[in-house]
Each structure stands twice: as structure tokens, then as C-alpha cells.
Amino acid sequence: MSKWFGVMTVCVGLFLSGCDMNRSVLKIDMYNSEGDSLGTATLTEGADAVDVKLSLTGLEPGLHGIHVHEFPKCEGPDFKSAGSHLNPDGKNHGLLNPDGSHLGDLPNIEADSSGAVEADVTISGATLKDGKTSLLRDNGTSLIIHQGQDDGVSQPAGNAGERIACGKIQVDEAQKQDAPSDPTEDGEQKMKE
């Protein structure tokens, strides 16, 4: 009996450890309020953090606030459907706040003179695994870019201006990025000519 219990324990442990494997890297699309693609954000599970690599075009040159918001919804034109900043600990806004910040508060990003952004930001304390600080909790969250820069202290959102870009952080959305192409056309096998 104890032999089978040990075997079952190992099998269940291996199964559960594999549950988070598909969450270690997520690539999401970012869109403006007209639904045009601006590029991608690649989220990678790190040590007590999630690293985000941004590759974007089409922004106004200058600094922009960027935050993780509480719902995986990107309904234009204002992206208010994404809710407030992700804040599981009930803290005040701002990376410069001496009492701590929202989990979703991130450093400003800078678009160059052509409107392009190639940047890496870290979401300290976040995870892509299960838990209170998961970016995939309750079906996911969203990544929002604002019109202006976040001042790091003003409540509730740093006076960063309008929400101008959004991407859904959820496993389903990320898997669409890597979905294989369909070898059939209208359900019929393509014929070689």
C-alpha cells in the first residue's frame, strides 16, 4: 500500500509541476484604441518577478506610464474595461510612494523620435504561476500604456493621462500567438497543383 502511495505522490507531483510550465513565457499583442497592432510584450517568469520585454511602434515620442490593470479586457476606445491598477495588497499608487506601490505600477517607458519602444521592465513580486500576485489570476489581467508619463506619486494613477494601448495578459491570448496555421482552407484539405 505504501509503495502505491509513494508512486501516486510522485505522479501527482510531476503532473502539478507541469501545470505552470506553459506559463513561464507569455507573448501578448498590444493594440491602440482603433484596434491597430502596436507590437508585443513578452512576459517571462523570473525569481520573485515577471520580466516584460516590450517591442512597440506607433506611440507618440516621449515618456509613457505603463501599468498592469486588474481585468483582461481591452475594450476601446478608452480601455476603462481593464479596471484599476492591479493592487492585491491595497497599497497607494506610485513607485515613489514611501509606503509601497500597487503591484501593477511600473517604471515609465520612452518612445523614441519615431514612436518606437524597445524596453525591458520588471514587475517585482509578480508571478505567472498561481497565487495572490499572479498576473493570470481570475482569468488574467491587462497591460495598459498611457498617453503621458506617470509621476510616481499622484493618486490614483500618477496623472499619466488617457489609456492609449492595451494587451490582455492571459494564457488563451498568448497561445493564439503560437497557434499553428491551419493546413486546410474552408475545412477542405488543400490540393497540390
Give a verbal description of the structure:
InterPro entries: SOD-like_Cu/Zn_dom_sf, SOD_Cu/Zn_/chaperone, SOD_Cu/Zn_BS, SOD_Cu_Zn_dom. It holds the Pfam family Sod_Cu. The protein is an alpha+beta fold and 193 residues long. Helix content is 13%, strand content 32%. The protein has a single domain (20-178), classed as Immunoglobulin-like (Sandwich). It contains two helices and eleven strands, in the order αβββββββββαββ. The strands form three sheets. It has a seven-stranded antiparallel sheet. A two-stranded antiparallel sheet has the order 4-6. A hairpin with a 2-residue loop joins strand 10 (184-185) and strand 11. It is globular and about 35 Å long.
Could you outline the blueprint of secondary structure elements for this entry?
Layout: H1 2-19, E1 25-32, E2 37-46, E3 49-56, E4 62-64, E5 66-69, E6 109-111, E7 117-124, E8 141-146, E9 163-169, H2 171-177, E10 184-185, E11 188-189
Antiparallel strand pairs: 1-2, 1-9, 2-3, 3-7, 4-6, 5-8, 8-9, 10-11
How much helical structure, as a percent, in the residues?
Answer: 10-25%
Q: Describe the global form.
A: globular
SS strand fraction = 25-35%
Average per-residue pLDDT, rounded, comes to 79
Largest sheet, spatial ordering of strands: 5-8-9-1-2-3-7
Number of helical runs?
2
- CATH H-level homologous superfamily name: Superoxide dismutase, copper/zinc binding domain
**String of helices and strands:** HEEEEEEEEEHEE
* Most strands sheet: 7 strands, antiparallel
- Rg computed from alpha carbons, rounded to a whole number of angstroms: 20 Å
Q: Total domains, how many?
A: 1
What is the structural class?
alpha+beta
What is the tally of beta strands? Answer: 11
CATH topology: Immunoglobulin-like
Q: Uncertain spans, ≥5 residues at pLDDT below 50? A: 4-22, 177-193
Please name the CATH architecture: Sandwich
Family: Belongs to the Cu-Zn superoxide dismutase family.
Enzyme class: oxidoreductase
EC number: 1.15.1.1
Protein name: Superoxide dismutase [Cu-Zn]
